[in-house]
Amino acid sequence: MSPTPAALRFGYGTNGLADLRLDDALALLADLGYDGVGLTLDHMHLDPLAPDLADRTRRVAHRLDALGLEVTVETGARYVLDPRRKHGPSLLDADPEDRARRTDLLLRAVRVAADLGAHAVHCFSGVTPPGTDRDTAWKRLTESLTPVLDAAGAAGVPLAVEPEPGHLLATLADFHRLRRLLGDPEHLGLTLDIGHCQCLEPLPPADCVRAAAPWLRHVQIEDMRRGVHEHLPFGDGEIDFPPVLEALAATGYRGLTVVELPRHSHAGPHHADLSLSFLRRAASFPRRAATCEGSSR
């Protein structure tokens, strides 16, 4: 029997609202009518390395509850661990102490997610360092993620790994390789970025949604063009969104579908407003091509 179609719940990522204080960003999303937020742990939004993390997390939890916002915790901050290396250090670095720093960040994210009642914790593998063979990189990845998965299981929070263009784990096929290497742990799930499907997956995005459904724990969404890893406002790329959203609803997915526009913070409130209007319209008219009305062309 097919799953009952779910009412999709839309969120917006705080990495696309980096110029706003977190309280202001959350209030904006609630006022616009979003169901939730993809909360990136970063120095400007719930810094995971600053003192009193538990107390600050508790205040954010109260704020989310007061605004009626759901949350997924994201860990893609660019310079949160190293002011000189974007997304560094990674789970694949040669130095075990550097890998341990990234693992520690993910362990902190699991605790934050548990305290917030989040749907999932998002993460990615990182880029394979120069001179590192793939077998070694996969070994480092599985070893680095093992304690995180243990913590996620104890906390009851899924860890949702994202295939990221250019990373060791770049595709859905790579996610399944990780799953097999780890022994298919219960709390290992998938973050599916719809734009990334358009960018490099062999299947169309709607088919990617259906193929990923059993492992789907978090969804990111934006427009994109084939072969170009550039997150675009809706209508500026090539994706036909109504079939994608129809497929997502048909899977019974219950988490957030979060708009991911990290390079558009300079106009974050504008894009947040237009994005929700676009998604609601696209979700209301399945099997019809989405128009560019309401996009940022």
From TrEMBL:
The keyword Isomerase applies. SUPFAM superfamilies: Xylose isomerase-like. Keywords: Isomerase. Residues 26-281 form the Xylose isomerase-like TIM barrel domain. InterPro entries: IolE/XylAMocC-like, Xyl_isomerase-like_sf, Xyl_isomerase-like_TIM-brl. The keyword Isomerase applies. GO terms for molecular function: isomerase activity. This is Sugar phosphate isomerase/epimerase. It comes from Streptomyces thermogriseus. The lineage of its organism: Bacteria, Bacillati, Actinomycetota, Actinomycetes, Kitasatosporales.
